[in-house]
């Protein structure tokens, strides 16, 4: 079949291609506008609320040069500090004497948590009692933490009361930690508002203090500053989760979890490592 086109046909074909290309450009620009303007208005999570002017936070007392690796662990160039680990049943059975002999001075022990599914059921940690006894027998300072997925002040109070009841006969040397972590947008906490999450932390703290204990908050810097109102939580010691050996967090912290892949004699798995400056 003859495929040769006349000059008129070629002209019409060129015009058609030009129009199609122009329409494609218009469609792409329109799609970009819709994605960047309309979609955020629909899908923006409720915790990403408009920024407001907040009071300044206490500044970090330390510079990056104050911290450096000392063998297998992070240390401080000047000033006193303690090294610690935090553990749960996922770390299996622990030889606490070997942990102590390796230079670890404190331990945070998970005693329970709340599921991140819709039901939000609470659960205990199968190794909590054994870990507490083992750490105390070796003279380590001990604190406990609860993995929170509370979405109401009532649930936060329930979690705090669980901690108080669970540890009523325990000698704790460190504050009870509320461990709050982002799981996913599909988790029950995935769309919690900044106001509600801050209120949950405040209620957890209020209940712990009323029960005669002290509390600290464990989370990452992004969660603290984007999902909570940190200026309302200044009285609660901050346990910073930041996986690096470079201290560049600009605000005050009480303890720093610098890796989740530490190796410590006596623990057969990777373990979270923490450094606590002594002021």
Describe the structure.
With 279 residues, the protein is of the alpha/beta class. Helix content is 32%, strand content 24%. The protein has 6 helices and 11 strands. The strands form 2 sheets. It has an 8-stranded mixed barrel with strand order 3-4-6-7-8-9-10-11. A two-stranded antiparallel ribbon has the order 1-2. Helix 4 runs parallel beside helix 5. The chain is globular, with a radius of gyration of 26 Å. 31% of the residues are buried. The N terminus is likely disordered.
Which strand-content bin applies to the residues?
15-25%
Round the mean pLDDT to the nearest integer and report it. Answer: 87
Biggest sheet: strands, sense, closure?
Answer: 8 strands, mixed, barrel
From the alpha-carbon coordinates, what is the Rg to the nearest angstrom? 26 Å
Shape: globular
Instruction: Describe the strand arrangement of the main beta sheet, using strand numbers.
Output: 3-4-6-7-8-9-10-11
Number of helices: 6
**N-C termini distance:** 90 Å
- Following the backbone from N to C, one meets helices and strands in this order, namely HEEEHEEHEHEHEHEEE
- Structural class designation: alpha/beta
Q: How much helical structure, as a percent, in the residues?
A: 25-40%
Count the beta strands: 11
The poorly predicted ranges are 1-13, 24-46
């Amino acid at each position: 079949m003859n495929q040769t086109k006349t000059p008129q046909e070629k002209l019409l074909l060129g015009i058609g291609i030009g129009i199609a290309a122009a329409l494609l450009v218009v469609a792409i620009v329109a799609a970009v506008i819709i994605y960047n303007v309309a979609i955020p208005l629909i899908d923006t999570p409720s915790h990403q609320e408009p920024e407001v002017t907040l009071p300044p936070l206490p500044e970090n007392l330390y510079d990056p040069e104050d911290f450096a690796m000392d063998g297998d662990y992070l240390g401080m160039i000047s000033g006193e500090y303690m090294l610690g680990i935090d553990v749960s049943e996922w770390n299996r059975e622990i030889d606490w004497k070997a942990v102590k002999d390796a230079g670890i001075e404190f331990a945070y022990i998970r005693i329970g948590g709340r599921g991140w599914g819709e039901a939000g059921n609470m659960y205990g940690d199968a190794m909590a009692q054994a870990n507490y006894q083992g750490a105390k027998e070796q003279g380590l300072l001990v604190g406990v933490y609860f993995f929170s997925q509370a979405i109401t002040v009532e649930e936060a109070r329930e979690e705090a009361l669980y901690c108080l009841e669970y540890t009523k006969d325990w000698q704790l040397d460190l504050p009870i930690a509320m461990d709050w972590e982002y799981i996913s947008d599909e988790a029950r906490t995935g769309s919690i508002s900044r106001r509600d999450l801050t209120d949950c932390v405040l209620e957890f703290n209020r209940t712990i203090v009323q029960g005669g204990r002290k509390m600290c908050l464990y989370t990452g810097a992004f969660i603290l500053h984007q999902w909570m109102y940190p200026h309302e939580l200044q009285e609660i010691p901050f346990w910073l989760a930041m996986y690096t050996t470079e201290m560049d967090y600009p605000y005050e912290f009480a303890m720093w979890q610098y890796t989740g892949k530490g190796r410590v004699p006596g623990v057969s798995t990777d373990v979270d490592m923490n450094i606590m400056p002594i002021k």
